[in-house]
Structures are given as C-alpha cells and as structure tokens.
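Quick one:
INPUT:
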C-alpha cells in the first residue's frame, strides 16, 4: 500500500513548447495532467523519447502548473538522449515515469534563479550565475540535479588535495617534490597513481574525511586522495587542487551506483522496483560486475572497471594490477548493448589469462 505522495506512475505527454534559452540549453513544456497535479519542482522523472533514447539520468521538474496541466523541464544537451529530446517539437510525445525525490517548498508566484547541476548528490553551479550578479535581492537559488550533466562534463571518481594549496593555485600531482608522502586507503588508487608519479611515497591513511584532512594539515602527509562526492557534500571543495578523470583513475566496479535489494519472492515489490530500475545503468553495472566475478575479486584485488553506453553500443575499460602493483593488465572492448553480460565476462577472462593469477595470494 502506497500513499499518493509516494506513488509512481507513467504518463504519455505531449510537447507543448520548447525554447533554447542558451547554447544547447533548453526548457521544454509538456502537457501532463497527472504530473502537473502530483509533482513539484525539484522532484525527478524519467523521460523516454522513443527509439531507445531513454535518458541516462532523470530530469528535475522546473515548474508544474496544475491548472494548465503542464510541467516544465530544464536541461542541457549532454549525450544522445537529450539531443533527441531537444529535436522534439510541438505535437510530439514522450513517455514519463515519476515523480521521485522530495522536491522543494516554494512560492509559485515568486521568481527564483535556477541553477542546473549534474548527478544526485553532486551540486555544481553551471548556469545563471549572471542572474545573481545583476540582482541586489537576498535570494537563494534552487539547485536542480539529475539533469544528465556530469560534473565537470566527465565522470569524476577521485580528487587530490595537496597540503597548503587550494583550487586557485592550479597545482597537480606532478608539482609534488620527489618522495612526497601521498595518503590513500586504496591499493588500486596507489598503483594507478604510480603510473603518473612512481617517485612518490604512497602510505595508507585511515579515518573519516575530517580526520584525514586533519592529518594532512598536521603535515603527516603531503597530499591525500579522497572521493570528490564526499568532499563536495561536506563543503570542503576549497581543499581540492586536482580532479582526476576516469582515464587517469579507473574507478572500482559499480562506483556511485545506488542498488536496492528485496526478498526474491516479494513479487509486488519486485514489480515496483522494475519500474524505477534504470536499465542503461543496470547494463553497465552488470558488465562491470561480471569482470569482477570472473576474477573472483575481493578487497585486496586492485582492479578498476568502468562501462559506458553510446547509443546501442556498450564500452568497457578495465585494468588489473599484480599484488605488488608492478604489473598492469589492461583491456578495452565494445559490444552491442544486448551483450553487456557477455562483454563483462569476456573482459574478465582476458585479464585473468594475461595476469596468470599474479593478482591473487
């Protein structure tokens, strides 16, 4: 039994209007009687434009108007899904599923500046900063997440914080002196960073984020590696001096994915979860986990795997290190999206064969 607020429904919605208010940035208005009454700004909806163009992330409702039975979404073109959405015109139809999330309490008659952010839990400001600069009002803008906008326009897995420096200094790991002490709690990250700077001294660091930063400021380390999302959520961004891309530090399997588990015989709950399951993410995670499954990886296995989807193709990139980190085994491959399961298994088998179990005790 679900109350009305928690109910999730599907609705076929007609495009009423669409405007490009800045380069590759759009506001689309949809005729959606159900959503207009049930949803509110800040909540999310999955949008399917047809022809396998389900957006990889849900969009945030910008405005809802129960009287006119319309809803609006704001988005920026990042990826084929949103590109397809931007080409839709009056009279076209999309399929929506939602609302999910908590939304915002707001005065619908009050003008509020809106910032677009990318990724739930990662609130970067990407647009309309000029609005605040020109305004003398003391106002708080909304931050909209889940808009299929990775920050900063690529997947970010880790950050490097260098003691005594901040983001404005524009320093990187290459600026550290030889034998500088770098703290990390991950063998994978240690071995990956050694590809960049083998002459640094990598040491284990433990504790929560505050504890680790304190150790850095107490000069026990010259630099530490931390999760970008964690630093951002704790408002400690001023400590960041370098952000690594996934081409530099391939993340661990399924990193950043939220998974839900239920009883295998709970058909009602399984049916509900099927409706909110994001199939493209599911395919990526399935491929990534199959690599790990073939390798029989555990907490001591230094392995990084990341999958991504480009239209009907799934790509996977993986690297595996020997126990001492001196040997690196790398493989990159692609298959049709329908073969995500097999792709992960094949990549795992290749790495296992090439490594000759040198990653195992």
């Amino acid at each position: 039994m679900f109350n009305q607020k928690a109910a999730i429904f599907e609705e076929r919605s007609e495009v009423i209007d669409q405007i490009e208010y800045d380069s590759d940035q759009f506001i689309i208005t949809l005729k959606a009687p159900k959503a207009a009454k049930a949803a509110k700004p800040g909540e999310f909806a999955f949008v399917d434009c047809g022809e396998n163009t389900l957006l990889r992330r849900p969009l945030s409702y910008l405005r809802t108007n129960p009287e006119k039975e319309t809803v609006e979404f704001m988005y920026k073109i990042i990826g084929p899904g949103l590109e397809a959405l931007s080409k839709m015109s009056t009279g076209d139809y999309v399929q929506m599923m939602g609302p999910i999330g908590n939304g915002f309490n707001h005065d619908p008659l009050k003008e509020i500046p809106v910032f677009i952010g990318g990724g739930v839990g990662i609130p970067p400001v990407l647009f309309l900063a000029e609005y605040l600069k020109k305004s003398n009002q003391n106002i708080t803008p909304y931050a909209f997440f889940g808009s299929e906008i990775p920050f900063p326009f690529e997947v970010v897995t880790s950050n490097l914080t260098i003691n005594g420096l901040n983001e404005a200094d524009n320093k990187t790991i290459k600026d550290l002196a030889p034998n500088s002490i770098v703290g990390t709690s991950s063998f994978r990250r240690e071995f990956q960073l050694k590809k960049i700077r083998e002459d640094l001294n990598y040491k284990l660091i433990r504790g929560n984020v505050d504890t680790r930063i304190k150790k850095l400021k107490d000069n026990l380390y010259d630099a530490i590696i931390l999760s970008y999302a964690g630093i951002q959520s704790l408002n400690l961004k001023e400590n960041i001096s370098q952000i690594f891309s996934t081409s530099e530090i391939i993340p661990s399997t399924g990193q950043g994915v939220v998974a839900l588990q239920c009883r295998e015989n709970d058909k009602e709950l399984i049916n509900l979860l099927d409706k909110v399951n994001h199939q493209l993410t599911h395919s990526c995670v399935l491929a990534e986990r199959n690599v790990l499954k073939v390798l029989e990886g555990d907490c001591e296995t230094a392995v990084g795997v990341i999958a991504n989807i480009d239209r009907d193709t799934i790509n996977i990139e993986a690297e595996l290190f020997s126990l001492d980190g001196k040997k690196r085994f790398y493989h990159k491959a692609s298959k049709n999206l329908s073969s995500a399961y097999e792709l992960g298994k094949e990549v795992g088998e290749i790495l296992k064969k090439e490594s000759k179990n040198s990653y195992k005790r």
